[in-house]
Amino acid sequence: MLAMTVLLLNRRRISAKELADRFEVSTKTIYRDMDTLSQAGIPVFAHQGTTGGFEIMEQYTISRQYLSLGEISSIIAAVKGIGTALQDATYASLHEKVTTLLHQSDKHQEGHRPESLVFDLNPWGLGQAARDKVNTFRRAIEDTKLARFSYMNSNSSESERTVEPYALILKGNVWYLHAYCTLRRQFRVFRLSRVQQLVMLEERFERRAVPAMESYTWDSEWIGRLLARVTLLFQPQVRYRVGDSFHPDMIATLEDGSLRVEGEMTIDEWFFGMVLSYGSQVRVEHPFHIAEEVVRRARQIVASYEN
């Protein structure tokens, strides 16, 4: 019943069939459950016709008593994490409001036990300049103002961009911007670490229909165009780094403790930089032409010191 109430609160209107499919029951059971909710004092309304269904009165909110101490603590942890990442007083206020959902006894208990869940949304090494970019884009999004900046893509090509910003995305430990690019005339995803000379303009823009991020196919321009099946052999001393960098399914531990990593990889500047960062602790076993390129780059490094 609680799950059904929460679903109704989060959706404008839901048909009996959709509810039945969601909870794997018959529509007859759904009608009976709606009657039970109404008798319990929850204002559920039924609408007839092809666009009909059930909905809860717009002003109705769920009582705090339906949330456990653990659930409220998780919400508080998430709000605190967002607040530290964005440095926005709005989230400090939201933190206070969510905390009021706790009873006095719960607050005492919460204050005397260590945090069991911590959201730290600040990427390692994030400086003030990076935070300023995030906050500037946030203001531009909220005020529907254009932003202009210099952007360097993965091929080290630099260009001036004017964009209509729509959303900030924290993926892993990297910030991205989802925006409409007036230069390319389409929605693009920009990595904030490659954004320079950012300025929020006074000119406003009319919001467009925004494509869902789930519908995006991976753009080869973001990572380079060459994919190859590569085999790398790592020494046991760098085991911890290999586990951080590659999916477990790609890693095989050999009898001598060395690690063989095999899979499809993007062959770009990042790849060669990654391989060279391991020094003598890695060898490219396959394909041969990639191993030759690593050797060529290593010789260039040596030559730069000899000269």
Automatic annotation (TrEMBL):
The keyword Plastid is assigned to this record: no
Keyword terms of this UniProt record: DNA-binding, Transcription, Transcription regulation
Signal peptide range: none
One matching Pfam family: HTH_11
Residue ranges of every copy of the HTH deoR-type domain listed in the record: 1-52
InterPro entries named in the record: CBASS_pafABC_assoc_protein (IPR051534), DeoR_HTH (IPR001034), HTH_11 (IPR013196), PafC-like (IPR028349), WCX_dom (IPR057727), WH-like_DNA-bd_sf (IPR036388), WH_DNA-bd_sf (IPR036390), WYL_dom (IPR026881)
GO MF terms held by the record: DNA binding; DNA-binding transcription factor activity
Domain of life: Bacteria
UniProt protein name: Putative DNA-binding transcriptional regulator YafY
Annotated organism of origin: Paenibacillus endophyticus
